[in-house]
């Protein structure tokens, strides 16, 4: 019992530090959102990759970066309606 | 001896001669010196009586290990009793009057006899003492006990800051307002003043009473002078009353009783007395007013009992069966106060009665307050009717007290005192008939009882219930029960801790509902702030700080303001501390305006004193966090430095010191304005005030720039040097501290110190008396060392060196310690030849003259010798002869010290090219290996090790092949120090010179080493393991490995674990290929322990060999396959840890196929629940992730992340999270494509689930 409590606390601490981590009750939408954001963050964080994509899109690098940053908001679409 | 000529008198071929001749030579020389020394009275240097006469030396030629090589001729039973003594009192004697080889430890005669005869066993119950000592009041100082003087808890206060004052008024009704309280305080102060005046008058012998009571005698003066509050005085006063002649019975007005009116303290005056039997009889016979002595226990012999003594006192409304302790419940206790003489005179008719004289030999029966309080509880049902008087004590009641309370369950304990608070729970009432308030009260009572006296589990749930419902219960109901409990005198640490915890939890929930109770809470919590126990203080601070956050600054100030100039010093002190906590909790700036006002209070010096005290406490609490507010804080107290009250000035200086200490090394500019008053003030002060001013000066000087520091130091030094000769202990301490602070400041030059300070300092403080007190000793040493840092070693040593030959031992020790510290930090470069000679001479004298062998002198000697290095060569002969002489001393501690000294100075001896001397010493040490005291033996081994280290294996005398066989039996010694030193020595030999001993001897050592693997000390086990490695390297791994593999079969877990480690070490030193085949072969043994041991060994092995493991992966995979699919959990767990170490070793080296194969076997274990197993499994998966890359593992996790069963999802998310934390970036390219609007599933992976 006490062990379970500790695992829950550990998990909470972990999630506070790493937003992208999940747990058994993570919904598909939350997960997808994290994946989208992580992916864009990774593209932006690797300049060669960003450059590559910019060339492919025929856009300036900075513009692509901004687009990606904007896409990170609601990256996986709107959250599903919560039915009671 | 002490003239340094010894080495010259040694013959040239001294060290080359035959060994026994050497010893003889040493003996002869010592004898000569002894003759010289003997002329000096009382010298211990070379006292022949100290020497051991019978030799315990081991022969160099005979075989040492008698258990293996039976020595012929010796009687095995020598030393044993052959028959059992009939007379038990007979002392057992040593059979051969010699030493036993093993120390004999047994109980003393008296202890044995005590057990045999049972003396003193029945009478004493050891638990009684323990129970008592847990009580907080028992270890409180008189000052701390003054918390009880604060009397009952004050009434609830009105909350002027409540958001809805109207609602508040209806709710709390009639709380005391600030105005009322301030008026009350004024009244108290006035009372105090009048009382003081009366006391003064009495002192002078004036009559203060305008009223002569009937029962008072005419010579009232005498008794008035004795009328203190002590029981004795009162008793005497009472006794006199009976001598009074009945004539004087005018009733006049009494003003004495008026001033006794509201004070429960004063009421106690007549509590502890019992009347004479005759008096009771008379009273009972004559009239009811005899009741006035309601609180007196009737004598045992009374023929007509006046009724149960509890009867006269109406029980406290809420506590049916018992009496309330006198400390709380104000109204109640004032109503039950004893009758005054005035009352009696008004009640009794003035004629027709006379006061009887007590019979001769009458002694009033004294009943302790505590016992009396417990009395009614002993016979709760005894209301009315005739009762036999029974002696009641708390202990005898312990058995009758219930541990099970209806509705609460089984408690850990239930004390007599608890009855007063929880008695209500004992009644059985129909709860449906009770009002809501009564129900709540019972509920809270039950929860509190569970928390205070219940088991851990009960406590936990009760505490949770209480915190969850506390807003529903309301602050009033809660605190009315909680706070009186904390005032209980018999409270124990644990109970207090729990109750304080309740307050803490409740505070959070109640928020501003606590406001009316802030003062009450403070009254019970403030004593914690001055508790001796550190944790109690921390707890108290926590509560006060939470309280101030919950109640807000305004409430806190309005509640604590009246206490700031309280007439009782105790109250002011605790209030100041509490205020400091408030400041640290709510921020210093918010409190600063208030503090400024208080510190400048014109009304009373008490207020200013408390204000300054608050400022003194703040830096102690928050340290350097005062820096931003330093200027404001200093501004508050700057005027108080020249206050008219000496107490205020004194505490101000302390506050400055505390501020400067916390601010160090910054903030000098904030102190600018007070420098002048401080320095000029210091000139005007005397005594304690001066000490405090100096303290402040001492803390400010280190903050200054160099020029200022120089200037201000010279300014103050005059006073300091004057006070060097002060007899006051506190002053001495302060002066020493200030001197060390000044001398370590940059601006103060060495020249200045030499010229103005050193002479006076040494004259004032380097006296024998200073060495006797521990704290002075420490201070003097530290200060001298600080001075020495500035003025140099030689300056100090020159002054001290003669003290080394002083006749007072503590003084010598103090000198040695100072020199040691100085030499250790500064070296001896500036010590000239003459001083060097004096120093060595003095050190040797101090070393030889010690009566209590102390590590200080040993350290000092070692440090000085090491610092002098080659310069010590001329003295080595002298040192060596001293050491050898002391090695044969009767006292083991002397021998131990001598051996320790050898260990320390061996490197220096080698540097001086005295290897011949070292050889000689090591030969002597070798002979003493038969030492019986383990501590000494350990030191001797340590000395030998030190010599082996500096000499090298091959130059060692006696040669290694002689030395090692001697060590083998010593390995069996179970003493930790011996074990550690032997194993170290053996390990060193195995490492450097294994070839000089034959393989058979090494194997014997291996067997002995196996036992060492069971040692408690980690260092020993580690050394033993390393030695296995060295030995295996020396004689080849086969034999050692066989021994170790056999040891895997033993029962003991620790031994098996250590064996596994040893196997891994052997593999590391001799190459894995020599070990792995044998190990894998051993796995075939169908025995769980062995197989586990093998796996464990493999785990350590792969950990140690790291990358080398890549060549062995494919070889061990089949073994691991088997282990990973074993039924036994531990098997799989250990196999997982093998996989982990292996995978980490081969990461990036191309064994992916094997790793994936193992992963497939590991993955099903992900559902394990046992924490150890699952941790190992997860670790193995993580390690494999490093070896094969994140994407592969990701594929495995996708299968389970959104599985319908939670039990499946949970472990998969755990793996996923670990992966995300450790290598999130590597995951991005392999995330699932979300373009299709279906749940990501990959059917082919479901096989893993």
Automatic annotation (TrEMBL), chain A:
| One annotated Gene Ontology cellular component of this protein | precatalytic spliceosome
Cited InterPro entries: SF3b5/RDS3-10 (IPR009846), Splicing_factor_3B_subunit_5 (IPR017089)
- Chain ranges passing through the membrane: none
In the record, biological process GO terms are:
mRNA splicing, via spliceosome
Any Pfam family matching the protein: SF3b10
Q: Which domain of life is it from?
A: Eukaryota
The Swiss-Prot or TrEMBL record describes its family as follows: Belongs to the SF3B5 family.
Q: What is this protein called?
A: Splicing factor subunit
| Native source organism of the sequence | Penicillium chermesinum
UniProtKB/TrEMBL annotation, chain B:
List all Low complexity biased stretches: 274-284
Q: Quote a single Gene Ontology cellular component term.
A: spliceosomal complex
Q: Where is this region: Disordered?
A: 213-302
Q: Where is the composition biased (Basic and acidic residues)?
A: 255-273
Domain of life from the UniProt record: Eukaryota
Which GO molecular function annotations are given, in alphabetical order? mRNA binding
Compartments annotated for it: namely: Nucleus
Q: Which InterPro entries match?
A: ARM-like, ARM-type_fold, PP2A/SF3B1-like_HEAT, SF3b_su1, SF3b_su1-like
Instruction: Please list the residue ranges annotated as the Splicing factor 3B subunit domain.
Output: 263-391
Keywords in alphabetical order, please. Coiled coil, mRNA processing, mRNA splicing, Nucleus, Repeat, Spliceosome
Q: Which residue windows are coiled coil?
A: 180-207
This chain belongs to the protein called Splicing factor 3B subunit 1
Q: Which organism is it from?
A: Penicillium chermesinum
PANTHER family linked to this entry? SPLICING FACTOR 3B, SUBUNIT 1-RELATED (PTHR12097)
Q: Which family does it belong to?
A: Belongs to the SF3B1 family.
Single GO BP term: spliceosomal complex assembly
